[in-house]
Amino acid sequence: MSFSISGKTAIVTGAANGVGLAIARHFAEGGANVVFADMDEKTLRHEMGEEAEKTPNIRLFAGDLRKKLTITNLVSTTIDAFERIDILVNASRQVLTTDALDPDDTTMDELWQQNTLTAMRVSQAVARRMIKQAGKSNSAANGSIVNISSIAARRTHADLLAYSVSCAALDQMTRSMAVSFAPHGIRVNAVAFGSVMSASLKGSLKDHDDMRDAILENTPLHRIASPGEVSDAVQYLASDAAGFVTGQIVTVDGGRTLIDPACVSAH
After folding, report:
1. Contact between 255 and 219 (Cβ < 8 Å)
2. 103: three-class secondary structure by DSSP
3. What is the pTM of this model?
4. With CB atoms 3.0 to 4.6 Å apart as the test, which of 52, 139, 159, 175 could cross-link to 97 if both were Cys?
5. pLDDT score at 223
6. Taking a C-beta distance cutoff of 8 angstroms, is the pair 115, 166 a contact?
7. Which domains does the chain have, with CATH numbers?
8. Beta-carbon count within 10 A of 58 CB
C-alpha cells in the first residue's frame, strides 16, 4: 500500500510556522493540493506568500478558526480551489503556562478554545464535506483527519495544567470521532510528539541553558526530533497505507514516555 498523498487535497491548520508549516510543506512537496491555514496572516504570507504565487497546488487562508464563520469560509475556499477535501490536519495549537491557584487565570479557557474546541469544529465541518463528496460518487468517503497532540496529555507538568488537559481532551476527542465517523469511511487519528526542534523550542533553549541537557537525558534516543519526523508520521496516517488505522494516538517522542525521570536521575 502506498504512502503517497499525491493528488489529494489537504487542509493544514496552524500552518504559518513550526510543525504545522513543516507538515503543510511536506504534503505540498509530496504532490498534494494544500491549503495552508493560520490566523497569523503576516507570518503566513512571509513564509509562503511568494511560494504560493508560483505553486498551483498551494493556497493560503488567513482567519481566526475559533469563529464558526471562518471555518465555513475555509471549507468553501478549499472547495473553490480544489473541488474536494481528502485530508485535514489540525495542527493549530498554543502552549501557555498555568497558575493552578490563580482564580483569575484565563489560560484554561484560551487553550480549551484554541487546542480542543477549534479542532472539533473544523473536524465536524470537514467531515460533513467528506460525507457529501462520498454521496455524490456513491462510494466511501475515504477521508482522513489527523490531530496534532502532545505527550503532555500523559505526562504531568505542574505549570502546564491547561495545556495538558486540552491535549488529553484532544486525544479522547480523536478516539470518539474515530468511532462516530467510521461508518462514513472517515478515519481519525492523532500524532502526539515530544521535543521537536520548532521555532518556539529554539527560543526556549536560548533562554534556558540547562533545558537541552534535561531533554536529552530524558529521551532514550538522546536527541531532539526534527519537524520532518513528525510530518512523516502524519503523512502515514493520512495516506492509504493507514487505511485500517483509526482512533490511534501515534507517539513520536524518541521513547521519552517510556521511562521514569526518577530512574534517569538515579543513574
Report:
1. yes
2. coil
3. 0.91
4. 159
5. 85
6. yes
7. 9-198+225-260 (3.40.50.720)
8. 20
Q: How far apart are CA 191 and CA 250, in angstroms?
A: 5
Q: Locate 89 and state its grid cell.
A: 490536519
Structural contact between residues 32 and 87, judged by C-beta atoms closer than 8 angstroms: yes
Sheet containing 33-38: order of strands: 58-62, 33-38, 9-13, 87-90, 143-150, 186-193, 249-252
User: What does the pLDDT read at residue 160?
Assistant: 85
Mean pLDDT of 74-89: 97
Are 84 and 9 in contact by the 8 Å Cβ rule? The answer is yes
Largest CA distance in the chain: 61
Q: Grid coordinates in use for 151?
A: 505527550
Burial class (CB in 10 A: 0-12, 13-18, 19+), 202: exposed
Residue type, 73: N
CA-CA distance, 56 to 143, in Å (whole number)? 22
- The set of long-range contacts for 73-76, using a CB threshold of 8 Å and a minimum separation of 24, is 74/11, 74/35, 74/37, 74/122, 74/125, 75/125, 75/126, 75/129
CB atoms within 10 A of CB 133: 18
To which residue does cell 494516538 refer? 249
Q: Check: CB of residue 24 under 8 Å from CB of residue 36.
A: yes
Q: Provide the 8-state DSSP code for 226.
A: P
Distance of alpha carbon 224 from alpha carbon 204, whole angstroms: 13
| Amino acid at site 197 | M
Residue indicated by cell numbers 512571509: 46
